[in-house]
Design brief:
With 263 residues, chain A is α/β, with parallel strands linked by helices. Chain A contains eight helices and 16 strands. At the A-B interface, helix 3, strand 5 and helix 4 of A face helix 3, strand 5 and helix 4 of B.
């Protein structure tokens, strides 16, 4: 089976990806982002992100109740259902779900961020966490009956609350359960770049050792992404491609050798 | 099985309804509205409804692309997933879906409204229509495996487009396929009122003949609602209750005799 992770950037060609998917003859599953849409909506609703600074000096975005509302509207609502609609228009029987539907992606809620407020140290707990397992029977039920699951955050915490999480980690959990043959990640770049600021510096191939070297040198969001890639490689079994989601035929190109082959 | 239709008014006690549902020991399905939420969001985003006047003089709200976006954010996103979350928090394994997911509710798109513009008569076609059938195998798959489907608009037209539709008509289609034993409609009133402006005028019982008489006298939205009730009665088999969704234990009360019994 094929897992397709679609980035949430504004430049991603969703119609092109889904048109390509209509020609794919294997069980498929989509995980998508919507960060550009979420940011635009938050802007229009004048709901800026809540940022807190931890006692150790790191800034974190707080996923408060309003932030989850934004995710529900932009990811689970607008983006998820417009992708499902694109699928239906192209004869793909998609079913759009979040991680809380049928506890499809179950996670552990983060314990909180230590902050200083009014001279006291206190723990700020938000609605975010890490995926721990997926509801494999429900995914199999859908896949075995010819449906294409289209998945989005939020995921479900231990108590049933909707929490924010990273799609890269969700893909790792999905692959652990479903053992995909191929994983394609479509982003707003030609693939993995030697120089992030130079689109001509595409690396067509990365070995596992390359990934580990890059991960050791990276920081922040890129480090987290490379760590997720490392975990996919450790789980094994899948051909992994990171390719451009902006072209005319992004998925076809990625399946035909464009982008970065990893592993 | 039990079908629960939850109105989209701001006064509906969702937490109370879902708490009650956790004690219900039969397969259940929820259909919900979100009109108050949609109107509030449209207001905050400054996206007023588009109203057109037909050549015969009737005003209609046009479900243009932006209106469907509003439905996706408020109904399919925020309201649907917060209900699913409430269910998960109360141990109910809910799966939130719209009519386009797996073509769960398939409809026929309206042919359009004849309007006069710039001295010409033309047809304005929007994204709205009427449900014609439901994907019964997908619903059975979920119900038979212990899931509680939580359904919302939009539904799916012949070509796969997301279209607006009336929940009353969707419930008729669901009952035709699933043959519910009980149908409970929870609204922002004590039930069916003899005088719409007087909450003390609750009619505890309506016969089929009563419904037909009221329907013949009603107009607009109320006529459409009574027509849907008439069609439910014609399909037969279900105990139908319209009751107050605003109380502390709305579903328990409705199942225990509150509101209006119909049939």
């Amino acid at each position: 089976m094929l897992i397709i992770k679609i980035g949430g950037g504004a430049g991603i060609n969703l119609e092109g990806i889904i048109t390509d998917l209509a020609a794919v003859r294997e069980p498929s599953l989509i995980v998508h982002g919507a960060n550009a849409l979420r940011d635009e909506l938050a802007d229009r609703l004048n709901m800026p992100k809540q940022v807190v600074t931890s006692v150790s000096g790191y800034d974190s975005v707080l996923s408060d109740e309003a932030a989850i509302d934004m995710i529900l509207m932009s990811y689970a609502g607008l983006r998820n259902k417009r992708i499902v609609e694109l699928c239906q228009r192209h004869g793909i029987n998609a079913v759009g779900l979040t991680g809380i539907d049928g506890r499809l992606v179950q996670g552990a809620r983060n314990t909180g961020i230590r902050v200083r407020e009014g001279g006291k140290t206190l723990i700020k707990r938000d609605f975010s966490g890490k995926p721990r397992s997926v509801n494999e029977p429900l995914l199999r039920l859908l896949l075995d009956n010819g449906y294409v699951p289209v998945l989005s955050i939020p995921i479900c915490d231990e108590a049933g609350f909707a929490i924010n999480s990273e799609n890269d980690d969700i893909v790792v959990s999905l692959h652990a359960a479903l053992r995909a043959d191929r994983i394609v990640q479509l982003i707003e770049a030609p693939g993995f770049l030697a120089d992030p600021d130079d689109e001509r510096s595409l690396l067509a191939q990365l070995t596992r050792a390359d990934v580990e070297r890059h991960e050791a040198q990276a920081s922040g969001r890129m480090k987290r992404k490379l760590l997720a890639v490392k975990r996919l490689l450790e789980a094994g079994g899948a051909g992994l491609v990171i390719a451009d989601g902006r072209g005319r035929t992004p998925l076809r190109d990625a399946l035909n050798g464009a982008g970065t082959r990893i592993g």
